[in-house]
C-alpha cells in the first residue's frame, strides 16, 4: 500500500457521491445545501489507522482543493494521555495542512451498556455536529476491524443485517454518508505503510485492556485464528459482503410488502400496524414485517427476545388483554386489531406543552368578536412546543390551526360562555359529534372512532361552560355548529 493507493481509494469512493449528490434516497439540491461544497470529515484519533488515512487525505486535498476537508478529534477524558494526544493531532494536522476541530465529551455510565458503546455513541454524536447534508464521514476501519465486527455479531446472535458488518459506503445521519476507504486493507498493510513513511502516531494504552470485547478479540482470538487460517480476514469479509447482499434483497421485499400492513387513516394522524393481515403471514414474515414497521417509524429495533414477546402478545393475547411491551424508549401497544408504537412520555414536559396549547387556544377563541374576521388564522407551530415530538408522535398534534370561516363544519363563536381547553375528560361526558344523529358518551365516541386509550388524553377538548363542544381535529358538537354564513372556528391538527 502507498499513499497514492489511499488517495485513489478516497477518490474512488467519495467523488461519485459528491458529484451526484445522491444522499440516502433523496437528492439534495444546491438550495438545500446552501450552495456549499460537500466536505469530507475524518474521524481522527491519531492512532496508526486514522493517521494513515489523514496522511492520504492530505494528498487528496492537494489534488482536489475545491473539496473542503476537516479532521475531528474527540477527547474522551478516559486516559491520562488524552491531552498529549490533542497536541499530537494538532501538530500533525498542521503538517498535513488540514483544519482540525477538537471536541471534549463527558461519558456517563449507563446500565446494560458497555463503556465501549457509550464512548462510540459519544464520538458519533460529535461527528454528526459537523456533517451537513451531502457531507461524508471518513473512518479508518480496516479488514481486521471487519473481522472483529463479524465475530461480535456472531457472539450477539445477530442475523444477516448484523453479519453484514460494515460497508465501504453506507448512508449516515439521514442525508450524509459514511465511507471506509481502508476496509479492504489489512492491519499489517497499514502498519507497514506507516513504518515505510516514518509516520508518527499515538498508542492508546486502553487497546491492550482485554476487558473490552474488541481488544480481547484483537489481542487473543484473531491472532490465533490467523495462525491457523491466514486468510480468514479476507474470507470473513467475503461472507459479510454476501450477507449484505442478502439483507439488501430482504429489505427491498419488506419495503414492497410493508405499505399493505400500515394504516394511516386513524384519528390524530398516527399510523397503526394491521394485525389481522399479519396473522395470515408465515412466522418468518411476521418477524420481518414487524421489524420493518418499527424501523419505518424511526425507532430502534428491540432484541430478538423482545420481538418474539411482542409478536406473541399482539397476535395471540386475549382480545380484552392490555398489551404493553416496553422496548427501551418506547412501548408497543395493541388496540382494535392494530399495534401502535408509543414513545416514552416525560410527563412534566408533556404538561408544559398542554398548558401552552391551552393558553394560546383559549386566548384566540375568546378574542372579542369585533376583532374576528373571515380568514383569520391562529397557528401553533411545532417549534413552539418544547417536546412537540412527544405530542406529534402520539396524537399527531405537531401543528395546531384554528381558522375563522363562514362555511363548512365549524364551531360557533362563544356567547358569553366561559371557554376552556382540557386534555382528558370523563368517559361519561356526553356530546353529539356533527356526524351523528344522537348524542353519546365520550368513551363510546372514542371507541367508534378507534382512538386508542393512550391517545385520548392527548387530544385537546374545547368546552363552553361545562359542555364539550369540540375535539380538535375530530368533531364539533352538532348543537354548537355555526349557522348560515356566520363566523365559526375550524380546528385542525
Structural description of this entry:
Residues 419-491 form the Lysidine-tRNA(Ile) synthetase C-terminal domain. The protein is an alpha+beta fold and 493 residues long. The protein has three domains: 3-251, HUPs (Rossmann fold), CATH 3.40.50.620; 282-343; 347-492, no CATH class. Helix content is 41%, strand content 17%. It has 16 helices and 21 strands. The strands form five sheets. Strands 3-2-1-4-6-5 form a six-stranded mixed beta sheet, sandwiched between helices. The longest helix has 26 residues, at 232-257. The N and C termini lie far apart (59 Å). Mean pLDDT is 84; it is low at 22-35 and 382-398.
**Percent of residues in β-strands:** 15-25%
Tally of domains:
3
CATH architecture of the largest domain: 3-Layer(aba) Sandwich
Count of alpha and pi helical runs: 16
Characterize the biggest β-sheet: 6 strands, mixed
Main location: cytoplasm
Subcellular location: Cytoplasm
Catalytic activity: cytidine(34) in tRNA(Ile2) + L-lysine + ATP = lysidine(34) in tRNA(Ile2) + AMP + diphosphate + H(+)
Keywords: ATP-binding, Cytoplasm, Ligase, Nucleotide-binding, tRNA processing
Question: How are the secondary structure elements laid out?
Answer:
Blueprint: H1 3-20, E1 40-43, H2 48-63, E2 69-75, H3 82-96, E3 100-104, H4 115-129, E4 136-138, H5 143-155, H6 160-163, E5 169-172, E6 176-179, H7 187-196, H8 213-228, H9 232-257, E7 262-263, E8 272-274, H10 275-279, H11 283-296, H12 304-316, E9 324-326, E10 330-335, E11 338-343, H13 347-365, E12 377-380, H14 388-395, E13 400-405, E14 411-412, E15 419-423, E16 430-431, E17 440-441, H15 442-448, H16 453-456, E18 460-464, E19 467-471, E20 475-476, E21 488-492
Parallel strand pairs: 1-2, 1-4, 2-3, 4-6
Antiparallel strand pairs: 5-6, 7-8, 8-11, 9-10, 10-11, 12-13, 13-21, 14-21, 15-18, 16-17, 18-19, 19-20
Helix pairs in contact: 1-2, 2-7, 5-8, 5-9
Organism: Shewanella electrodiphila
Binding site for ATP: 45-50
Protein name: tRNA(Ile)-lysidine synthase
